[in-house]
């Protein structure tokens, strides 16, 4: 149970998310074959998706509140985040056009630094996308990322540890 909690919390950390939790799960499985990779995928997906509604509904509001705050450094940081988010969202929308939903799926699904459920949800919030469509796109992206990272982990761990 301790290992499942461990990967659950790793999956919730921004920037690390699923792409960090899944290799850890494969490593635990290599050391302990009784540790289920199937259940790891589910635990990691739930951990990765749990912050999504909070990010969608509150992150932008916190940044807007912080922008007008009295702490100079925090105010500048919030202003920078809002500016970057709005510019990035406008660029994504201009490039994607009507395919914004699929662009968000691919953005979350490609396991590169700076992409993932946290960033994708924040982008959806900045673009004023529908909450339900945003969550579905992020779920689709998380599934895509889990398949990609899972294949890479299987190939990598199989090559190094001889997974049968």
Task: Provide the descriptors you would attach to this structure in a database record.
2 domains, mainly alpha, 80% helix, 164 residues, globular
Q: Could you explain how this protein is built, in words?
A:
With 164 residues, this protein is mainly α. The protein has helices at 2-12, 17-31, 37-49, 52-67, 72-96, 100-109, 117-126, 131-161. Helix 4 (52-67) crosses helix 5 (72-96). The longest helix is centred in the last third of the chain and has 31 residues, at 131-161.
SS-based class? mainly alpha
The averaged pLDDT comes out at 87
What's the alpha carbon Rg, rounded to whole Å?
18 Å
* Uncertain residue segments: none
> What is the count of distinct domains?
2
* Total beta strand runs: 0
Q: Which H/E pattern describes the elements?
A: HHHHHHHH
The proportion of residues forming helix, as a percent range, comes to over 70%
Give a topology summary.
Layout: H1 2-12, H2 17-31, H3 37-49, H4 52-67, H5 72-96, H6 100-109, H7 117-126, H8 131-161
């Amino acid at each position: 149970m301790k290992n499942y909690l461990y990967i659950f919390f790793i999956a919730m950390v921004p920037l690390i998310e699923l792409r960090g939790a899944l290799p850890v799960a494969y490593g635990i499985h290599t050391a302990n074959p009784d540790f289920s990779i199937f259940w790891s995928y589910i635990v990691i997906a739930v951990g990765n998706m749990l912050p999504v509604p909070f990010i969608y509904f509150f992150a932008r509001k916190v940044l807007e509140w912080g922008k007008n705050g009295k702490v100079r450094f925090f105010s500048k940081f919030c202003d920078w985040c809002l500016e970057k988010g709005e510019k990035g969202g406008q660029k994504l929308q201009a490039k994607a056009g009507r395919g914004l939903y699929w662009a968000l799926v691919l953005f979350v699904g490609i396991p590169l630094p700076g992409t993932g459920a946290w960033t994708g949800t924040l982008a959806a919030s900045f673009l004023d996308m529908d909450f339900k469509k945003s969550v579905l796109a992020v779920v689709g992206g998380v599934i895509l990322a889990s398949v990609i990272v899972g294949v890479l982990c299987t190939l990598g761990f199989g090559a190094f540890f001889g997974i049968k």
